[in-house]
Amino acid sequence: MTIAVVLLLGAVVAGLVWFTANISRKVEAALPPRGQFMEIEGDRIHYVDTGGTGLAIVMIHGLGGNLLHFGYALAGLLATEFRLIVVDRPGSGYSTRAAGADATLASQASVIAKLIGALGLTRPLLVGHSLGGAISLALALDHPDCVGGLALIAPLTHARGEVPAVFRGLVIRTNLVRNLVAWTLATPLGILRGPAALKEVFAPEAVAPDFLLRAGGLLGLRPKAFYATSSDIVVINDVLPDYMKRYSSLNLLFGILFGKDDRLLDYRAQGEAMKLSCPALDLELIDGGHMLPMTAPDRCAALIRRIAGRRQHVSQDAPEVARRLDQVFTQRRGALCI
After folding, report:
1. Which of 26, 33, 176, 310 has a Cα-to-Cα distance from 212 of 20 to 30 A?
2. What's the predicted TM-score (pTM) here?
3. pLDDT, tens digit, for every residue of 252-264?
């Protein structure tokens, strides 16, 4: 390779890095953080807490998303009834992931469990969309004291044999190559291919109006977003098969909403398969695709209200149940003494 070729290659790489950094600055100026930050063991978690007095609900977005996916429409339907805590997952949106931290479902669930504890929430309802659904399930299995119920929307529940075509460019297994692509090719390719990719993610429905700004879609053009999303996707199956073996042990209020036309996650392999493991699951199937928080916010809100209503009913009944159990144990102790 001649010196001229090396210099030309260096100039191209430098130009791509400059272009990426410039786009990133413009995106963050247009879409600054909306909430608060909390340091959790090296992670810096960005979240919005509405501070309401109703039942606490923690909302966890999906792959490549951010908390504005819920803020687009769904959070507004619920904000007057509940205390909503909408989270940017570790590495996503404006949250950062500690150096050397992994992106497995278990690790992300652990961070969110610590956030729930730090906020003093008592067994909140978890709302998870897509990958956020898998993380919600990990929370329920690994940190059951942190979870009072699950209302999942088009959730990933079972391991897939292959990555959907629209996400295959994210499958980069080494940090060095992932970082190089993030700072050179990812942003310009994202601009060129973004419209087609969004059509596939939303299909068969239309892309939500003003998705890039109202739902924070532009944040996905930043190199940190590409790096985090790639990190997430390559480790999904590291622990998911182990969680699948434990689903039958779930004993909590649990609902799922799935679109029958979802092209990313099949409702039969994800929703109906979950129903087999958890017969008490409230599974609702509707016409629609994958991005239901934006395309069917009313149906999502109805599921959340339904599970939340049952959660509140259980909470109201808890003191009476405890009193009755205490009476039973007292009677048994008396019988043993006789």
Report:
1. 176
2. 0.91
3. 999 999 999 999 9
